[in-house]
Amino acid sequence: MLDYRFIKENLEAVKKNISNRNMNADADLVVSLFDKRTALTTEVQSLQQKRNENAKAMKGKLEQDQRQALIEEGKAIKEQIANCEKKLAEIETELDEAGRKIPNMAHSDAPVGSLDSENLEVKQVGKPRNFGFKPKDHVQLAQDLDLVDFDAATKVSGNKFYYLKNEAVFLEQALVMYAMNILRKHGFTPFITPDIAREEILQGIGFNPRGNESNVYSLEGEQSCLVATAEITLGGYHSGEILPKEKLPLMYCGLSHCFRREAGAAGQFSKGLYRVHQFTKLEMFVYCLPEQSDSIHEKLRQIEEEIFQGLGIPFRVVDTCTGDLGAPAYRKWDLEAWMPGRGENGDWGEVTSTSNCTDFQARRLNVRYKDDDGKNRFVHMLNGTAVAVSRALVAILENYQNEDGTITVPEALVPFCGFDVIKHKG
After folding, report:
1. What is the predicted pLDDT for the residue at 262?
2. Rg of the chain taking only CA atoms, in angstroms
3. Residue 210: C-alpha distances to residues 119, 245, 261, 275 (Å)
4. Are 379 and 402 in contact, with CB atoms under 8 Å apart?
5. How much of the chain exceeds pLDDT 90, in percent?
6. Distance (Å, rounded) from C-alpha 356 to C-alpha 96?
7. Is the predicted pLDDT of residue 266 greater than 60, yes or no?
């Protein structure tokens, strides 16, 4: 969440940012409620001072009528304070609700646009393979090689679930270990995180846990949800804490299942493993000083590039446009892998992203550090996908397919899975 005073002092810039992000939020309302809260807070403090003066006067030597007058005055002040505090609580609730709708400010270099098609390509790494045959999509490949069972999963769990089978099981584990070892080399502390988080943690991170637009599964009666990413659980890990400045940055990576409703997601590019309700993901998360976040954001992107370069998957990097940024993100890089089976002639598909959320999440979750002057400041928080297994599998199956229908395993994964080719069964 943005600082309310910042919103007031930069109102036009905040309103322009909301427009650029194509979001619905009322910055004028936030300023109005902020001013009302300030005025009511001042009034409450003034009344409390009067109450203290009244109580002090009651301790002196008084005539009976003087004492009675002070008693009546004290009762009136007490009632006034109660009324003001009630109004203040109502205003604070309204302000919090309106304030949470205001997105983070976007980086000045983030391209302005409303659709992902307006994201700006920064570079390409690797060249799409020229096949001497018509490449299949991953759904056909997985069915032919008995790697994924979508039909049984639909019967058991519903649409957009899947069973991984045979070599695909080892590929998932290999991808996790491959990426985990790269992150260990870069100094990340590894976690296996819970798959459930309290709603206040989701709200702090910037996810909406309730309503038709929510992308998360709420647990009825529990005030908690299944996590959509380990960003939620890693971001909540230090909620309400003051972190030692000398320990920053803290670099964590979390392995978790991810559950997403994917409401309204449809179309040919959503089929198969690309957009599902449950998948495994290894997430990077960093707590750092404000002056460190830009350079760490670059580092997270470079690690994502290292992972996919090591897999031999062609990809491109895009600077995400304002309309495609999530509310907490100040700037976001996406890695889009080349997927030969996507559409008629292949296309790019997002496989990872990394976001600098500055102090937007830290304000909601109250994660701070003490600066050199002894003042408490909010940390900056960043996240990035090391590997989302289901999408990485799409890219591997389609890029490494052979004319005879077999799949060559990327060299980097062979030591972890123990085989170098996936063949037809029987």
Report:
1. 81
2. 27
3. 29, 35, 12, 21
4. no
5. 85
6. 23
7. no
Distance CA 393, CA 172 (A): 8
CA distances from 47 to 36, 51, 81, 85 (A): 16, 6, 6, 11
CB 421 within 8 A of CB 406: yes
Summarize pLDDT for 94-145 with one digit per residue, the tens: 999 999 999 999 999 999 998 888 999 999 999 999 999 999 999 999 999 9
Q: How confident is the model at residue 211 (pLDDT cuts 50, 70, 90)?
A: low
Residues 6+ apart with CB under 8 A from 372: 245
Active site members: 260, 275, 350, 353, 391
Burial environment of residue 22 by CB neighbours within 10 A (0 to 12, 13 to 18, 19 or more): middle
Question: Residue 309 — φ and ψ, nearest 5°?
Answer: -65, -40
Residues 348, 335: Cα–Cα separation, whole Å:
9
- The structure tokens listed for 380 are 């900056």
Report the alpha-carbon distance of residue 385 to residue 355 in Å, rounded.
Answer: 9
Q: What is the pLDDT of residues 24-68, one digit of tens each?
A: 999 999 999 999 999 999 999 999 999 998 888 888 777 888 888
The residues, any chain, with a CB within 8 Å of residue 212's CB and separated by 6 or more, are 263
Structure tokens at 285: 């998360």
Closest CA to 189 of 284, 51, 316: 284
End-to-end CA distance of the chain: 57
